[in-house]
Specification:
The structure is a single chain. The protein is mostly helical. The protein has a single domain, classed as Arc Repressor Mutant, subunit A. 39% of the residues lie in helices and 8% in strands. It contains five helices and three strands, in the order αβαβααβα. The radius of gyration is 19 Å and the shape is extended. This is DUF742 domain-containing protein. It holds the Pfam family DUF742.
Length: 119
């Protein structure tokens, strides 16, 4: 009976609330899934933030712009967990987040429409 009941297919054993220390998304909870996260270089010292392995994975992955949705896949964690972790890093100035444009100009829509009509 020394055989483990889990294997690689079972996924991570650590529960999401353990990774976030029971916290839920705070003031940055409305981060869009398409928001691009980029690590600030050089990495600032974050003495008040105890970096977890997941925080470090985010910093390493975001050397180029990466969306929150992509980070959730990279970390194999739920989007809510990634929002909490990115919120920590954002609060400490370790990452920069660029939200997608919410407005589309009429001119761009007309160009797209004309392009589609030409097809």
């Amino acid at each position: 009976m020394d055989e483990a009941w889990y294997d690689d297919e079972a996924g991570p054993i650590v529960r999401p609330y353990t990774i976030t220390r029971g916290r839920t998304p705070g003031k940055h909870s409305r981060l869009d899934t398409a928001a691009q996260v980029v690590t600030v270089e050089p990495r600032p010292e974050t003495p008040r933030l105890e970096l977890t392995p997941e925080h470090r994975m985010i910093l390493d992955a975001c050397m180029r712009p990466v969306s929150l949705a992509e980070l959730a896949v990279i970390l194999t964690q739920p989007l809510g967990v990634v929002r909490v972790l990115c919120s920590d890093l954002l609060d400490h100035g370790a990452v920069f987040v660029r939200s997608p444009r919410t407005e589309v100009s009429r001119e761009i829509l007309e160009q797209v429409y004309r392009g589609l009509c030409r097809l």
